[in-house]
């Protein structure tokens, strides 16, 4: 079993320095890696990023992260990324990281993702330039996720995980106002996941959402926003087994 710890939306700042560290220090006993699903800061400042960095430095398990919309607010995503990388985290945007979990190789494909909504209620690439750019950004994020997952398949990873901030499915948004679903995720992310195949999809962003969902292709989706899971992290157990074909999701049981 691969043990994947995950949390998003920890929204740290100077006044929360150190609050997660005691729980994170237990990770080597209960998990093989830690996924951070974005919104690690409140306003994306370098000062806040340094608080997160101190929380995750030298944990003894690999840390793989994506940024969230809050981590972009100060218009310094590159600096925030650099601070987190300096603390040893893999920070992904349209990229993949492969980490070891015992004898197994775990591939994580990551993107922040973006909004646009879901089938039957989604934004289209039409009209004003800013509207077209909105949808194109969402599509670029999804394309990066798909190509990263495909690369992990070619590399023969034993387990593949899609890590995003925005949601790929509407099920894990249940509890949020329906009117804001288009700002919480995009069906394009789920299309990418189902096209390339994955064993688990993890996201955050929807603080009032629901933990469990699934893509139409059968890939289990988990909303790990901290207000949703109500703890420092949640650990998911994935069996290591041969994938039958791209697009088939394996069972993921929750701990
Ligand atoms: Fe958040
Ligand atoms: Fe967010």
From TrEMBL:
Transmembrane segments: none
Statement: the UniProt record of this protein carries the keyword Hydrolase: yes
Single Gene Ontology MF annotation: metal ion binding
Swiss-Prot/TrEMBL GO biological process terms: lipid A biosynthetic process
Keyword list, A-Z: Hydrolase, Metal-binding
Superkingdom of origin: Bacteria
Gene Ontology CC entries for this record: membrane
Cross-referenced Gene3D superfamilies: 3.60.21.10
KW Transferase (keyword) present: no
Annotated InterPro entries: Calcineurin-like_PHP (IPR004843), Metallo-depent_PP-like (IPR029052), Metallophosphoesterase_sf (IPR051158), UCP008292 (IPR016538)
Record-annotated Calcineurin-like phosphoesterase domain positions: 2-208
PANTHER family (UniProt xref): PHOSPHODIESTERASE YAEI, TRANSMEMBRANE PROTEIN WITH METALLOPHOSPHOESTERASE DOMAIN-RELATED
Name the UniProt record assigns to this protein: Icc-related predicted phosphoesterase
Species this chain originates from: Streptomyces griseoloalbus
